[in-house]
Structures
1.
Amino acid sequence: MELTASMIEAHIYRKRKGKIEFLLLKRGKKEIYPGLWQMVTGKIKKDEKAFKTVLREVKEETDLTVKKLFVVPNVNSFYSFTNDSINFIPVFLCLVNEGDKVKISKEHCKYRWVSKEKAKRMFAWRGQKKSLKIIYSFLTNENKEIHKAYPPAPSRREGEFYSLPFGKG
């Protein structure tokens, strides 16, 4: 059995009127899992770094430009019976500007900006819901112990890579 990491999962959020909204995309009728609501997902190209895949896939699937990029301390996985492999999916969080317009790709037929509660109800898989919980906890400072142990990094230039301050090492 092969272990592989060939895909990414990218949760997109914006702040609008002081509230956090997540972008969900509905898969088109001709795609695998038609009608499923999801975040941006995509395949990592040969010799491409996962975070570069995120930037490319977000642009391809939504026409949005990532303002800040975070690594989420969660890796989702699934078993593929077609090639008898376990697939690991690194999870990322992308901040976009509030006023930017979404233009979905042919893979999707609809999009919605939704609250955490609505996103949780719309996601199909437990791993996606777990990622959302971790992300929301970080964004709302719900877990104050994490922020005490790992204060925010000094200001960085826009477009630089950011990491969520979770875990030691």
Note: Confidence is low (pLDDT under 50) at residues 145-161, 164-169.
2.
Amino acid sequence: MKNPDRKTVSRLEALPNIGRSMADDLRLIGIDHPKKLVGKDPFKLYDKLCKATGTRQDPCVLDVFMAAVHFMEKGDPLPWWSFTEERKKRLRWNGQQVKTDILLAKARKLRIKTDSHKINGDALTRAKDTGRL
């Protein structure tokens, strides 16, 4: 496990759990230096990446973000999967929102017209009834 000096690390790829692809994803959402991770909410970073790429990223990406922020905020260098259970617990308490987000993502993929702040219930019901969701 990589364990660079937090005070002097200057490359994202030097962080534990961060390779070239993940570093590129972080740069895409405005994180171009490890110190920019300090104080960030990994869930917001994940949402920002999903919006920037136009696709729902694998939830393990969120675990990696959690691990990177944890490390830069003076935590031990832990493998990303050490954060999976915490992610699941934090999402579980807000399970209804997660279900809503999944329905919205499916609706957008199927090009069902939805309001960005609420689900268009009639359109989703019709899509469900016709087997599209």
Note: Residues 114-120 have pLDDT under 50 and may be disordered.
3.
Amino acid sequence: MNINNFVDKKYERMSLKQLTGAPVEALQGLSETDAKVLKEAFKVKTVSDLAKLKYIKWAQAICLLAEGETRTPVSYMNINKFVDKAYEKWSFDQLKDAPFDALQGVSEGDSLLIKKAFRKKQLSKFANIASAIVLLAEAEEAVN
């Protein structure tokens, strides 16, 4: 069992627990330049930091819920504490295509940095891999 297709060669012999503390660029396809952007914008340094970044979790939740959303005349749900005021009336489906700074706490500057750095790559892919590594590392530790 291995996750060699998801981590760079020099990290292939690490345990899941060790990978959680590895620099974020340990994820295959995430460059040192990408890592610098994540550090500058969100103070993300490690695989664990990326997995636990609240903005990533919010964006993942919005994208997932957009898949099953249906519009009704009345809704009792809102995510106003997570999105900027200008986006409060948007549907999940609309929000999934909104700029990253639609999320409360993400500046327009940081949003542009992320967009530029990850233009051809999907930040969500790296976040999903990081989340899986952290989740399995925690489960592995709980079993021992």
Note: The CA atoms of residues 21 and 90 lie 37 Å apart.
